[in-house]
Amino acid sequence: MRSGERTDPGRSGDRTDPRRVERLRHAKLDLALHTLRDGEGRPLLLLHGLGERTPATLPRELAAWPGPVHGLDFTGHGQSTIPRGGGYTCEVLMGDADTALRHLKQATLVGRGLGAYVALLLAGARPAEVRGAILRDGLGLAGGGPTPGTPTISFPNPSAGGTPDPFALAELSRDVRPPDYATVFLRQANELSGLEWPVSVCCAERPDWLAAIASEPGALETSLDEALRHYAGV
């Protein structure tokens, strides 16, 4: 481990975890990519919500996916590195997800809450490699709203240990998400992915950024089951 980084000592290894955990390097950070199910074909990549981690087992509602299923622990969550002093943004987490995507080559994304916003960003940034992004309700979906709030400084307890990192909870819950910024990524996915529906919205909650996405061409409002069937066939 390099200076300036810390990991959760109780979760840093995979000897007690029946799943296969691969360690991926993103800048100075080690990310945990979990294999929830092996298989042939295009992978499904799960991106969890704020303060969460990759689920211990494959969620039942995703079992119909015909290929392998993987889950990524974002920086500061699960078995991934906790950087000292915070500095979290959704763009940093997009870099985490991009690291996993490069490893998998191509994937369909399923994002919950915070992971849904990251999935949207990655769908626009890597339109050839992301074969559909499914956005779901979950923790951190709204972020800090469409405009900056009153500036604050977080002072979490740096010696608390474990995950999620308190800095991640403090900073990502205030991450600003302007609707016009979000729609840029959808429009890029529309233009370059070759998919009729590069994003599927399977959410009941509608923060401003997501309401803007749902009103754009290329975003299909549908159920999770229908979205999985659709992307399995493209």
Which helices and strands occur, and which strands form pairs?
Elements: E1 5-6, E2 20-26, E3 29-37, E4 44-47, E5 69-73, E6 82-83, H1 90-104, E7 107-112, H2 114-125, E8 130-136, H3 166-172, H4 179-192, E9 199-202, H5 208-214, E10 219-221, H6 224-232
Parallel strand pairs: 4-5, 4-7, 7-8, 8-9, 9-10
Antiparallel strand pairs: 1-6, 2-3, 3-5
Can you walk through the features of this model?
The protein has helices at about 90-105, 115-125, 165-170, 180-190, 210-215, 225-230, and strands at about 5, 20-25, 30-35, 45, 70-75, 80-85, 105-110, 130-135, 200, 220. By secondary structure, it is of the alpha/beta class. The chain has one domain (about 5-230): Alpha/Beta hydrolase fold, catalytic domain (Rossmann fold), CATH 3.40.50.1820. The strands form 2 sheets. Strands 2-3-5-4-7-8-9-10 form an 8-stranded mixed beta sheet, sandwiched between helices. A two-stranded antiparallel ribbon has the order 1-6. Helix 1 (about 90-105) packs across helix 2, helix 2 (about 115-125) packs across helix 4 (about 180-190) and helix 4 runs parallel beside helix 5 (about 210-215). It is globular and about 50 Å long. Mean pLDDT is about 90; it is low at about 1-20.
Keywords:
single chain; 234 residues; alpha/beta; Rossmann fold; 8-stranded mixed β-sheet; two-stranded antiparallel sheet; 27% helix; disordered N terminus
